[in-house]
Amino acid sequence: MSKRVLMKGNEVIGQAAIEAGCKLFFGYPITPSTEIIEYLSKYLPKAGGTVLQAEDEIGAINMCYGAACTGTRVMTASSSPGMSLKQEGISYCAAAELPVVLVNVNRTGPGLGGLGPAQSDYFQSTKGGGHGDYRLIVLAPSKSQELYDMTLEAFDLAEKYRNPVLLLTDGFLGQMMEPVELKEKPASPEVDKSWIVDGAKGRKKRIIASYSLTNEIGEANNLRWEAKYKDIKEKEQRWEEFYAEDADYLIVSYGTTGRISKSVVLNARKKGIKLGLIRPISLWPFPEKAFIPYKDKVKGIVTVELNTGQMIEDVKLAVECKVPVHLYRRQGGMLPTEDEILANVEKVFNLASEEV
Amino acid sequence: MDKVSSFPKTLVDVPMHYCPGCTHGIIHRLVAEVIEEMEIAFKTVGIASVGCSCFCYDYFNFDVVASAHGRAPATATGVKRVHPECLVFTYQGDGDLAAIGTAEIIHAAVRGEKISVIFVNNGIYGMTGGQMAPTTLPEMKATTSPYGRSTALTGYPIKMTEMLALQDGCVYAERTKISSVATINKTKKAIRKSFELQIAGKGFSVVEILSTCPTNWGMEPLESIKWMEENLETYYPVGLIKDEKEVK
Amino acid sequence: MITVLTGNFGSGKTEISVNLAIKNHSTLIDLDIVNPYFRSRRVKEEMEDKGVKVILPPPYLANSDLPVITPEVLGELQNPNADVVIDVGGDNVGAIVLGRFSKILEEKNAEILLVVNPYRPYTQNQFGAQQILEQIQEAARVSITGIISNPNLGRVTTISDVILGHIEVVEIAKGLNLPIKFISCCNDLAHEVVYHVNVPVVGIEIYMLTPWEL
């Protein structure tokens, strides 16, 4: 049964987790992510699951670690300062190759920051975050339907690659109300569960650990993970293109600002400016492939971000610095308007004269 | 003639890495024997912590998950909430449980998490080479308290098991020691009681075991047992701290 | 007249509160201590320009999630000529704050209204609405006196969404044995909705806009 309902972004994530067969949720309240744990506290027990409010984020992620060791679908959600606390555990989950689904409803920082929307955790999310050389699969939805669809998919991806998957959203997407089609989840692909621990009944014992004091074994582990990350990089790059094909200039933006940027493109086209949009959906792996047709063609790129300039580094690498890449950003919980983004695009590329 | 003793199937028959005189080997064997005698190896998940015992997963012959430093009770919670029928125990030293893992262990007890905690206390960090632990005695020397632990600077040894026993979710807490055949037998009984309570669906329980560290204490094995009984034990008296009957 | 709007998260309380206050030049009290986004305080200046007195926590807390209630709230409720609309936070979580005012609300015969949007999950039927109603009544220590029918799917709502949704709300209200005080819908649909329903229609202007709508 598929039905259309009006839901708040954070509720959508909770509902999708239930639909995906998530049986355990461990978390700790923090604005603006709290509705996720509140929603699941109400409705996950009715679906045969358990929600446990931990003593802190460290406890919560390590409970996820334990539950994931049994091969059960498990999730945690938090907001920026809480995600910092979880990083140790996330590194352990990556090393033990555990399929945990993480949600970060990005608020502002550094420090306690504020409650407004931000993209200031881009580096933390895509470049490791915790210690050691690992990667998370990072998905960045920009509307409620994507929150639903990507939460469903996150559980499958996590199991497929035995890797933590992070859904990176922001306070604005979390709080916004939009109609969502609650699609039934298609059956998940069969995955190998020959690694889980649940008591060694009729089989040899299993160990889940990440400690290695033999450097040769340590390197072999790193190479194995590297090969996995390479495989993910090859197969899981996702992005959306909007009026990009004939564009002279591109905006690159994800999440909330990716959505605002769509209107900017339409406004620019009305003015005769050939502006297009590439909206990264997977932030790691970063959709480098999206830029292949454009890096020798477009005259310039502006990244629109809610931080001091983080994704811009990946964009510059993706176009091999063949194209001038500029940044337009707002910070501290502020969102840019369509007009100010377009004005900035016109300014940096000197387009005012091209207006028709 | 009847066989009265044999090597437990719940232990892997390999030499352990522990120093001569260290009691981890004995405690591993006690845990393994109890699990074998209770015939529950097929539904046991041990949680290893970080410290000298971190490689216990190589010695135990059942499923083991290795946890981050101090987080074993949280990891155990995750496993136990999925598999309430399993025996889930943590094996933690005093650095792991009483310093970095204080929040996790207290809140596992507060929740009455149905897990067993084997807490090995020798008053020092073994793995990293003899640093001061929260359980280090006043005036006791360690590499980070080279002039002896100053209570003015670092406070007093922490009494974790007493603290855990205060929580309503804790159904059983006992402190034992490894110093003789008699105390080894007592320790085994305490471990068995803790595991039985868990299988019976009761709450959180902890067995604290006073242990030695000849290497980092700089003593002969026998000397260190004597030192443990004359010093560690005076601060941490062995005996029952909270009995099941006290639980309402 | 004191009117209190309760309901589950996202049922539309804030939009309706803001519109009612502007329409009747009432005082608006923002008791939404739950959600720092999309609160009536976002449009404070606009409301004040339109003659609405707005009671909010101090400005430096405007974007916080601190559950701060100012002393002005009780003062306003004690006013014998009080003409007040109270916007409460969502669900029982948000309604708890009403408990602190339950006595005076009863004394003043306040209308405690439950906003029902049948397109929200869990108020799609009488069972769900009953649960929300009971949870809110328990948390707020007041009795709900009526229903506001608010069938919508956000910005993309069509006339048939409103009419079909309202039929559901009529059923729900019947089951709860509560009167429907009015139906609310977007101004541009209101003129047509009046021909299809037999309760008063309140047209709504949308104030809580997203950045791509500003």
Please give a structural write-up.
The complex is a heterotrimer of chains A (356), B (248) and C (214). Chain A has 11 helices and 15 strands. Chain A is α/β, with parallel strands linked by helices and 356 residues long. Chain A has 2 domains: 233 residues, Rossmann fold (3-Layer(aba) Sandwich); 115 residues, Rossmann fold, CATH 3.40.50.920. In chain A, strand 6, helix 6 and strand 7 form a beta-alpha-beta unit. Chain A is globular, with a radius of gyration of 21 Å. The termini of chain A are far apart. Chain B has 248 residues and is an alpha/beta fold. Chain B has one domain: Thiamin diphosphate (ThDP)-binding fold, Pyr/PP domains (Rossmann fold, 3-Layer(aba) Sandwich). Chain B has a 7-stranded mixed sheet, with helices on both faces. The radius of gyration of chain B is 17 Å and the shape is globular. Chain C has one domain: Rossmann fold (3-Layer(aba) Sandwich), CATH 3.40.50. Chain C has 8 helices and 8 strands. In chain C, helix 6 crosses helix 7. Strand 9 of chain A pairs parallel with strand 2 of chain B, so a sheet runs across the interface.
